[in-house]
Structure formats: C-alpha cells, structure tokens
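Risk register update: the risk of archive-format incompatibility is retired. Evidence:
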Amino acid sequence: MKKLLVFAAAFIVFTGYSFTGMEKFPAKKSDAAVAVTSQETFRYFRIHRQAKNVVLNWGVNSPAGISSFILERSYDGEFFDIINQTPCNNAEKFSWKDISVFPGYIYYRIACMMTDGTIYYSPVEVIRIVQHG
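Archived output:
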C-alpha cells in the first residue's frame, strides 16, 4: 500500500494532475485553453516515422510571448498524455524524437504555453506504426 501511495504522489507531481478537477495544468481564473488553427500560432506541425521512432517538427509564426511547448501523445485520439516539455528559447522551428512508441495509430498534438498562462493547441496529427521489425 505504501508503494502505491508513493507512486500516486509522484504521478501527481510529475504530470500536474489534480483530483479535484482531474485536469492537467490547472488554469487560474484568468487563464483559458484556446484551440486555434495552425495559421494563428503554429506555422506548421508535421510528424514522420524514422526507423522505430516518430519525429515531430513544428514551427511558430512568432516566438514572442511563448514560454514553452508541451508535447502530448494519445493511442485513442481522445485522451492525451504529456510526453515532453521543451522551452521556446525565442526560436521559430523545433524538432523532437519520440523513441518510445508502440505499433498502432498514434495521435500527437502540441500545447503552446504563453507567458500569460494562455494555452494554444496545434492541430492533431496521426501516424500509423506497423509492427516493429
């Protein structure tokens, strides 16, 4: 039982889950998650397979006001898990390699965290991974 409680506490700390609202990255009262098209924040978002991995490439129209990006993956297209967070560092182009994928359809999206707390989401991209050889 003690191991389960330690695991649950670590899970909450590292994922940002809140049992009161069951949400990731709880928003302040003035913050809002906004779904926008790629042309408003994201210039492009592409994924492709590279050997046994999936590479995510994305660009933004302007890095002004962006603090970081949260990369999310889903195996059902509905429930997304955070797989990485990377700072913006005032750049316009980004790349990240997902090295822990399983066969099947994999959905990816990127949450753009603004310095004012607003969150903008990229369009969802999907890729099909056939059994590893």
